[in-house]
Amino acid sequence: MARRELLAGPDTIHWGHFDASLAPVIEIDPGDTIVVQTVSGGPGETPTEPPFTVRPALRAIHAAASPQLGPHILTGPISVRGAEPGDALRIEILDIALADDWGFNLIKSDKGALPQDFSYDRMIHLAIDQTSGAIRTPWGMEIPARPFFGIMGAAPAAAAGRVTSIIPGAFGGNIDNKELVVGSTLYLPVAAGGALLSVGDGHAAQGDGEACLTAVETGLTGTFRIDLVKAAHLSEPFAETATHLIAMAFDEDLNEAARIALRRMIDMISSRTALSAEEAYRLCSFAVDLRITQLVNVKKGVHAMLPRRYLGQKDGDE
Fold first, then answer.
1. Can you give the three-state secondary structure of 188-254, one letter per residue?
2. Helix (H) or strand (E) run with residue 267 in it
3. Cα(285)–Cα(282) distance, rounded to whole angstroms?
4. SS3 at position 255
């Protein structure tokens, strides 16, 4: 199995969209490990003064490219040799490193969870200590970094055309699930040849909900082992951690997203155990946490988390 590297630059990114017609910037074999560099922030979100350092790659991207449909700069697409519609990507998150000494957070007047309460546009920059992992707010508070990628997505089906990076879907995309840290594994349905995986929207820290629209947005470098599950026929992404099985759902109605996540968890329990649907439903009431993933991406997210010991496994077992 090979180890590959994909740097962020004008020729290796697409800005604000997913599209099955995009040409891959690299092709890997199933089982390969790939190190992916990402950047975050448009020209209006990038610091212009010390003490922050802006990488030349980000400035080059600003000079050569512009956003289409959404604000996220995505590295990719990565083609996985042999991936076909109906398969699934298995993405093991091996490492996530802070790549910049700054992040930004944005409030916009017509977005976020409380647009009526905060009806103005305002941006702040936050200092990130890449060695200690401490994030310093402008008001003097320190927050520990827990970095993850807000966006990990395969291309949608060709019939969908070009879609915004803002709204998550069956292909993944702007999931914004803070559980997808080092040690987690994400499964994504494949809807286009090669899968065409793209990664971006780095977050140094985020609370469930991502309430004000953005997290601590920053550049990250991720190391992933990417494998292929043939004929998986997944209808939606899901994830595993050392301790939990995670079902995900997205809908414009938060209550409906919760119902979808719950139904998906019931199906996952029933397919992995001898429990009936009714017993799985009861187990969800006893042991599953329904959490708000995010409230701000048009389609809101809910993820259901089941401790893996209820599937007959000890915490941390594979």
1. EECCCCCCCEEEEEEECCCCCECCCCCCCECCEEEEEEEEEECCCCCCCCEEECCCEEEEEEEECCH
2. helix 254-272
3. 5
4. helix
Q: Where in the chain is the domain with CATH 3.10.28.20?
A: 241-311
Spelled out in words, what is the top-level CATH class assigned to the domain 3-41+51-99+147-229? mainly beta
Cα angle for residues 246, 248, 253 (degrees, 5° grid): 145
- For domain 241-311, the CATH class is alpha beta
Where do we find the tokens 């065409």?
A: 196
User: CATH 2.60.120.580 occupies which residues in the chain?
Assistant: 3-41+51-99+147-229
Distance from the Cα of residue 137 to its chain's centroid? 23
Smallest CA-to-CA distance from 121 within 129, 111, 113 is with: 111
The rounded radius of gyration (Å) of the Cα atoms in the chain is 19
DSSP string covering 169-199: BTTEEE---TT-STT-EEEEE--STT--EEE
User: pLDDT tens per residue, the chain (318 residues)?
Assistant: 899 999 999 999 999 999 999 999 999 999 999 999 999 999 999 999 899 999 999 999 999 999 999 999 999 999 999 999 999 999 999 999 999 999 999 999 999 999 999 999 999 999 999 999 999 999 999 999 999 999 999 999 999 999 999 999 999 999 999 999 999 999 999 999 999 999 999 999 999 999 999 999 999 999 999 999 999 999 999 999 999 999 999 999 999 999 999 999 999 999 999 999 999 999 999 999 999 999 999 999 999 999 999 998 544 444
Q: Going by C-beta distance under 8 Å and a sequence separation of 6 or more, which residues neighbour residue 24?
A: 76, 77, 78, 79, 194, 196
Burial 246-274 (b: 16+ CB within 10 A, else e): bbbbbbeeeeebbebbbbbbbebbbebee
Q: Is the dihedral of CA 210, 211, 213, 215 positive or negative?
A: negative
CB atoms within 10 A of CB 49: 6
- The model carries a pTM of 0.96
